[in-house]
Amino acid sequence: MNYKALAERLLPGEYPSLESYEEKYPPRSLPKGAEVTRLAPSPTGFIHLGNLFAAIANERIAHQSGGILYLRIEDTDLKRKVDGAVEAVKNALRYFDIKFDEGAEIGGDETYAPWYQRQRAEIYRAFVKHLIEEGRAYPCFCTEEELSALREEQTAKKEITGYYGKYAKCRNLSEEEIYKNLDEGKPFVIRLKSMGSPENKHKFHDEIKGDITVPENDQDVVILKSDGIPTYHFAHAIDDHFMRTTLVIRGEEWLASLPIHIELFETLGFERPRYGHNCSLMKQDGESRRKLSKRKDPELSLEFYRKEGYFARAVKVYMLTLLNSNFEEWYRKNPEAPLENFKFSAGKMSKSGTLFDLDKLNDISKNELALLSAEEMFDFLKTWADEYGTDAQEGYFADRDKMLKVLTLCMGIGGKKRRKDFTTASQAMEFIKFFFERPETYEEFRAELYDRASVMDHFLESYRYEDDAQAWFEKIKQVAAKNGYAAEMKDYKANPEAYKGSVADVAEILRIATTGRANTPDLWTIMQILGETEVRERIATLMWQFSQEWYREIEPSAEGMARELYRESLGLPPKGENK
RNA sequence: GGCCUUGUGGUCAAGCGGUUAAGACGGCGCCCUCUCACGGCGCAAUCCCGGGUUCGAUUCCCGGCAAGGUCACCA
After folding, report:
1. Angle value at C-alpha A535, between A529 and A536, nearest 5 degrees
2. Strand B at less than 7 A from CB of A475
3. Is the CB of residue A323 inside 7 Å of nucleic acid strand B?
4. Could you say which residues 56-95 of protein chain A have a Cβ atom less than 7 A away from any atom in strand B?
């Protein structure tokens, strides 16, 4: 068989010499030990937690070694392409502070460009042509129907499926048959002529899994599709060689095709990069666990975290704790140090599938947010609200001073202990809502707090905005005593039967009346921020409602009196209907 | 089904032949307290199973079992 002539017929024309590519994409001049890693998504536009997981590992390994992280777009399959996908990937990763040194739409050193595989067609073909000339690749004319028939046959016989050995029909086509097919214009793919046998097993060192055994490949895999574009496997070998990748961290799902890649690198005569196959993120689903799925699990999408307003650093910290088991301990000891100072190591990555734990993420988020200053929190929330918040929420930020006071209080800044009430921006906005909008609904009063109107009335009577926290609380105590509640907690605990309740209950009535909620940060400060008029109006409004109800039930004729009471408490003149 | 990988509390996990088998999240209880949050203290809960090797196995070996991955002109 004249392979040279065949190669020319299959891929006609002059191609640059193989050596010229070596010169064009020379080995990188980097310090010893520097790792070149990459992220190589296909442009589907959907970027998920698994991508981020691998991205962080690749980024850390590259940058802590003084190496390079680049972005390559694996667009060999047109069906997967979605417009704007590359932008989406870049944006998502920027949010989580993953910085590329070079790559598609990144700029940087152009030596190893282009980074879109479709733009690299010539290189792939040059090498495919070479393999044909060497007799290490051949054209295959089998149709999809033939291939699936073969698969069925193999399955029925309980043999291994695929294109190999005696099943590789086109491998042994005669020269005449090949040219006849070609003359008839039959479409063809180029397959690798595999020399391996799965009976032979080799030890292989995986940077994450450790020593594993890998069988030899015997599949005559497709390397060039009928459209002249290579398959993933072939493009991987060529690109990672010429982009001078030193370490490939990729998902565990690639482990099964490692034998193919090993053979490809061998037959091309390339030194292969080191590999680390990381486990995938799992989710508990009833009895069993499964990979996080795009359809069923919104928390897989990176977009989910941005919409909810997760703090990017918190997500990163959580990823790091999953990625490297010793990270959590390090972080505990070095809470102040930049994350980059942590010595990341592929060897510490988990070997088995990790269940994604939203509780843990939420815990980390609370802690991370509690580290922010009021100004930082202001910026974080505002950025979120501008993009995802309602109009009303955007409005909260108009009064910067008030917002800073609110945040200072709600985050417990200045106090002995920081508060940790929320995990995301959307929760935080919900939490501070009552400062900016009057409550629409009120948390239910416990049944025993039946005389709340009277408590409110007494409170408004004695309330002075100028009072400091202590004086204010003294007055609450007086209100308590006046209404039959224990002014001192100790008294109440010692003898609960003697009272209707304690100051705590009185405070609860006032808390619900002003905020709508039974649980809030310090009430006195809240009242200070709201301002006197607002406090009085809120409490009086509710008080009036209660009085009305009460009068309606007990003494319908006295309803008018309730209104007067209300007006009086606001300091308004009696009579007159308009506010 | 073949091949590959993995198996320590509910979850993430330390551990490398002898330990009361760390820690964190979650759960539960108590304390602090005007509520909540924070914080403090405490409790429950784990070495997949069966054989070896050994004075001794969670740890080493073999065999099961279970889980995950993969078997395309998708990546």
Report:
1. 150
2. no
3. no
4. 74, 76-77, 80
Strands A274-278 and A247-251: parallel
- Locate A197 and state its tokens: 């046998």
Binning chain A into helix, strand and coil, the percentages to the nearest 5 are 50, 10, 35
**Reported CATH class of domain A3-13+122-278:** alpha beta
Give the pLDDT mean for A553-565: 64
Between vectors from CA A336 to CA A330 and to CA A337, what angle results, nearest 5°? 65
Nearest nucleotide over every DNA/RNA strand to the A211 CA, judged by C1': B5
Q: What is the Cα–Cα distance from A304 to A201, expressed in whole angstroms?
A: 43
Which CATH number describes the domain made up of A452-569? 1.10.10
In sequence order, what are the beta bridge partners of A46? Answer: none
| Residue at A173: amino acid letter | L
* Residue written as token pair 């004729």: A557
On whether the A284-369 domain is CATH 3.90.1150.10, my answer is: no
A351-407 pLDDT, tens digit each: 888 899 999 999 999 999 999 999 999 999 999 999 999 999 999 999 999 999 999
A312 beta carbon < 7 A from strand B?
A: no
A327's tokens: 């990270």
With CA of A352 and C1' of each nucleotide, the nearest comes out as: B6
Q: CA-to-C1' distance for A426 and B54, Å?
A: 60
Write the CA distances from A547 to A172, A250, A260, A455, A485, integer angstroms. 97, 68, 81, 12, 20
What is the domain partition of chain A in residue ranges? Answer: 3-13+122-278, 284-369, 374-435, 452-569
Q: What angle do CA A492, A494, A500 make, to 5 degrees?
A: 30
Model confidence, pTM? 0.91
Q: How much is the pLDDT for A318?
A: 96
At A225, which helix (H) or strand (E)?
A: none
Contact A476, A505 (CB under 8 A): no
Determine if strand B comes within 7 Å of the CB of A227: yes
In the numeric block, which tokens belong to residue A445?
A: 């009063």
Q: pLDDT band for position A536 (50/70/90)?
A: very high
Is the pLDDT assigned to residue A446 strictly greater than 90?
Answer: no
Q: Pick from A353, A350, A360, A221: which is nearest to A299 by CA? A: A360
Q: For A454-488, b where at least 16 C-beta lie within 10 A, e where not — what string?
A: bbbbbbbeebeeebeeeebeebbbbbbbbbebbbe
Question: In 3D, which of A348, A538, A504, A511 has the Cα closest to residue A436?
Answer: A538
The mean predicted confidence, pLDDT, of chain A is 91
Asked whether strand B has any atom less than 7 Å from the CB of A200, the reply is: no
CA distance A233 to A231: 5
The most confident of A65-74, A87-96, A501-510, by mean pLDDT? A65-74
pLDDT at A545 > cutoff 90: no
Report which residue is nearest nucleotide B74 when distances run from CA to C1': A77
